[in-house]
Every structure is written in structure tokens, then in C-alpha cells.
Amino acid sequence: MKYRAATIKDIAQALGLSTSTVSRALRDSHEISAATKQLVLEHAASLNYHPNPIALSLKEKKSRSIGVIVSEIANSFFSQTINGIESVANEKGYTVIISQSHESFEKEVRTLQYLASRSIDGLLISVSSATKDLTHLKALHQYGFPIVFFDRIIEDIATHKVMVDNFQGAYNATMHLLQQGYRRIACITNSAHLSITRERVAGYIAALEKHGIHPQPALIKYCFHGGMLLPEVTDAVNQLIKLKTKPDAIFATSDKLTTGCMRALKKAKVAIPGGMALTGFSNSDLIELLHAPITVVRQPAFEMGQVATELLLQLIESKRPVKEFETRVLQSELLIPPR
Fold first, then answer.
1. How far apart are CA 155 and CA 173, in angstroms?
2. Rounded to two decimals, what is the model's pTM?
3. Rounded Cα–Cα distance for residues 336 and 103 (Å)
């Protein structure tokens, strides 16, 4: 038998009431007596009745849902961010629809078109590593569609943005390596045009220059797919260890790049830190379980999700067009394992 959800009409017929009376009772209207409300609610519960979200969205002209686009849910940073997003959205009565771009511009565009066609009320997005053309985002924004960028932000679109202090996080990580005595430090980073890449590479360079070390282009490797393709990271690591004067340490600028470097070094039989030191951005708890845990930059991912969602809901629920926007910069933490 095909499943059919209970309706207000079913409740009304069973109780001998009008559909309008049942509807008002379910909405706790003052026009309906307490006894009738209790009768309606008890029968609704027995039928496992739930309001039709499509009907409600048509009535309210809102779907009470928000879209989220990230590169990959399996990434520990993004999974923690999504937990933060859902904690706020669910409390406010919003449903969260999550999609992955897998670092593909084309998939990001298709996903955004799909979500917009489902009448979501707003969007949280961390753009893909391949996103250079912003036409799809600018078009929605120009129509007044609420968008908030987090992590990988877009400077060209005037809206709320939430990020960490990428420069300081990278600076702290590189300084830690320098203080440990490493001097030839390589950097393996994301796609060159991303905001997080520019800021983290700048922090890495500033730390080197603070110690009088001139940054060498040969020691900076850009991975277009940001670690999602392990062969790309492996190739970058292999290029570094094959240099005539190879680096004595690597700084990786994202979760996937950090774990990718670990795998590539293990495959090349280079011990960490004996053969080469490694530090990087990572929110994975598995780092702590390693035989030789590495120092990592931990981002406040859960808080980032919460803050981004609160800002998006402000845009959605504002009675007037919002013209003043915030860029929230959160602080990361350098986690140094005990010796």
C-alpha cells in the first residue's frame, strides 16, 4: 500500500469538525476552546500528522530552509562547520539542505541553480577551488537573495562573511617550525586564487622574512584541487623531496593537504618528523592518535557555522533591505602535542 500522509481534512472528518476549525486549533488560535484544541491535538498525534511544509511555504512565502554548499562533507573542518550551522538553524525552525561541490565550478553552479529552484530562503557557501567566474553568485545577490560566505570568501560581493585569521594561523604555524630549528620550510597550499590560499601563504612568507629567510618559489606548491586528489598532493611532495637541497619541513595549509602530505611522506618512506617535519591546518581528531602527533592549526569550525547561520538568518528575517555588512574574523589555535 502506498504511503499517504495524514491531512487536516482527515482530522476534520474523523472528529466531525470543519477544516478551518481544525486548522485554527493546530495553530493554537484563541478562537478555539481548550477542549476542542486538546481533542484535535490528540487525534493529530494518533495519525502522526505533520504540517505540509510545501503548503506552509506557499502560505508564508518562505520555505524555512537554507542551502549550504561546501567542497566535501567528509572534510573534518566542513563536517564540524555543518554541525554548527544545524545547531542554530534547527533551533530557529529552519531545515538545512547540504550539497558538495567536490571542488568543481560546474557542480557548484548546478547545485546553486537546483537549490534556488527549490525556493530556499538563503545560502551559506564556501566556494570551490575552481570558482573564478562569479556570475552565478552575483546574479542571485543582485536579486536580493540572502547569501553569506564562510571560510573561502568572495571580496567582490557585498554581504556578510565569516572567516578565521588565516594570516595569523599560518604565521604561527611557520614560526613554530622556525623556533624548532627548521630553516628550509616548504609550503603546500590550495588553488592560488582562493582567499584562504593568499592569506595563509602571506602568513607563511611573513614568518620566514621575520627570521631573515627569503621565500623560494620552488618551495611553494599549489594544489588546484586542495587535497581532494591524493596524486596531486603526492606529486607536490615528491617534487620537494627530489630537490637537490630538499626542505627539512612542510607547512600544509588545509585539512586535506595535511593528511595528504602525511600519506605521501609515508609512501616515500620519509619519517615524520625524523626525515621531515610537518605542520598544517587540521581539525581532525585522528591527528592526536598518531604515533608521532604533529602540531596543527585548529580552526573554530563549529563556531564559524553558528556565526554564519546567525548572520544569514538576520538577512532572511530582516523587514528592510540590509545595506551594512560584517566580516567576522575568528581566531585559530595552534595545538602543540606534548613531548
1. 25
2. 0.80
3. 30
